[in-house]
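A further point concerns the way the authors explain their paired sequence and structure data. An entry of this sort, consisting of the sequence and the corresponding C-alpha cells, reads as follows:
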Amino acid sequence: MLRILSLILLSTLHISHSTLSAASGEPPPNIIVILADDQGWGDLSLHGNKNLLTPNLDRLANEGAQFTNFYVQPVCSPTRAELLTGRYYPRSGVYSTGAGGERIDADEQLISEVLRDAGYATGGFGKWHSGTQAPYHPNTRGFDEYYGFTSGHWGSYFDAILDHNGKMVTSTGYLPDALTTAAIEFIKKQHQAGRPSFTYLALPTPHSPMQTTDADWARFEGKTLTSLATHPEKEDHQHTRAALAMVENIDYNVGRILESIKKLDADKNTIVVYFTDNGPNGWRYNGGMRGKKGGTSEGGVRSPLFIRYPQAIESATTIETITGSIDLLSTLCDLADVEWEPKQPLDGISVAPALTQSDWQAPERLLYSYWSERVSARSQDYRLDYEGRLYHIPSDRVEKVDLSNKKPDLTAAMKAAVATWKEALLTPENINKERPLTVGYPGLATTQLPARDAKWSGNINRSAKWPNSSYLTDWVHNEDRVYFNADVGEAATYHVSILYTATKDAVGSKITLASGEASTSERIQKAHTPLEYGMKYDRVDRSQNGESYVKDFATLDIGKIELKEGATTLELSADFPSDDGELEFRMLMLEKR
C-alpha cells in the first residue's frame, strides 16, 4: 500500500529540483508554452476522436513527450495561477474566476519573472486572467511584451479590442490567428537579436463565445458526429461542432508556430509545451471519462501535455508518472538550465529527469484538484473523489468501480491527506480573499477599471450572467451608483474618462466621479446608441449561456481628480436631465498626468 500518511505534507514542501544542462556549447533554449482554453483531453484525433483532425498537435506529441497522467484544475484562472507560480492556486490569492478573485498575489514569484531575470525576453499573448491593474497586469509580472485581454473570456473573437502593453488597440481578423501572428513576430524579433525568448501563447478557444471563421465552420456545419460524449443524451451537437472547429483552428496555429521556428532553424533548440486549462466546456467525447469543466473527476481535470525539445527529449516518449500544472515551472527551468531560488515554498516538482533519464523514479505523492468546495486526490494509481469514493485509474479511467470498501486503509489514508491539505490551504483568508482594486501602481500609466469589477446600487444591472466582458445597463436614476473599492498606490492628479452609451434623453447628464471630498464632473454632449454585434460568427446562441454581445462604447473625458494614497471608494453618479434617459457603462479609466 502507498505510504500515504508519510506523504500528507509533501504538497506543502518544496522539493528542490536537479539542474539539467542544455547541450554543450548551445545557447539557452527558447521556450514556447501554448495553452488552450476549455479544450478537453478528448478533443484530439490523437486521443481517438474521429470527429476532427489535429495533425499538428498529433505531430507535436509524437515528436516529443506525451504525459498520459497530467492534471490541471477544473477551471481557468486556477490552472493559470499554478502554471505561473508552481504552487496550488489557493496559496496565491486566487479564489474565483472574476471580480478580482482571479488575481495572483503581487508577492508571488512567476515563471515570467524567473526567466526574465535569467536573461530571457518574455512575451505574453492572449488570455491572461490573472489580474488587470498594476501590479497584477502581465507587464508588471515579468512580461516585456503583452498583447491580449486580461479578462476571463472575451465578447468577440473578430476585430477584437485588446490590451497591448496597457493600451487599448483593435486586432484584425480572427483572434486566435492574430494572437499567433503576434507571438511568431515576437519569437522572430528575439531570435534576430540573439536573445532567448519565453513565449506564452494563451489561446482563448474553444471557450465561448462559440465563434469560428466561415472556413472552419464549413467543415463542421451539419456534420454527423461519431465520437460521442460519455452520456450521449447530454451532448449538444451544435456546441460540439463549434468547439471542434475551434480546436482545428488551434491545430492550424500550432502548425504555424512549429513552421516558424523551423524556418528560423531554431526548432531543435526550442522547448514547445502544449496543454489545456481544464476539461471540455460541454458534454462531448472525452475518452469515456466522468465529468467536464468545473468537475474534479478525471474528465474535468485530465489534460493533454506535450513537450517537444529535440535537443534533449527523444521522440515518441511516453511519461506515465502523475504530473500537474504545478510542476511546469520547475520542469521548464530545469530543461532550460535556469538556476533560480524560489521565494516561497513550491508545491510542484521538476519532472525533467523523467524526460532525460531512463532510471528516474518519481516520488510518491498526491495531486489535489479543488473547485467549489470539492476536493479530489490522485495518487499514481488511485483517485479519491470528493465524495470519498476510490477508483483504480489504470484499470478504471472512467471511474465506475468504487473500491473504498475493499481498500479501507488506503481510503482512510487518502481522506486524511485531503483533510490535511484542506486545513492548510482552504483557510478563510485564502478562499475568500477580499482585496481592493489597485489604482496608480507603478508599471502602467493608465488604470483600467472595467464594469466586471464594479459594484453598483439602485436600478443598474449587468448585461450578462458572467462578469468578464460584460457591461452595466439600466442606469436611469439619479440615485443609481457605480463604484469601485480601490487602493491608490500613489497620490497624484489623475485624468478621468469613462466608456459609455447614452440615449437621446440622456444627453446633458452630468457624470461625476467622487473620491472622499475630491470630485470631477462633465456632461454628456452626444447620444451614443450602438447596436450589439458579434452574431454573424456565432455558431451557438450565446444567450443560452448567459452571455451578452459587445458594443462600441464612446469615451467621455470627465476631467482631473486628486487622489490620496491608500484606501478609497471611487463613486460614479449621474444627474439626468429627464426621467427618460438611460446610460450603459463599460469602463472607468484613470491616467496619471
Residues 437-592 form a domain with the Jelly Rolls fold (CATH 2.60.120.260). The two ends are 65 Å apart (CA to CA). The chain has eleven helices and 28 strands. The longest helix spans residues 237-263.
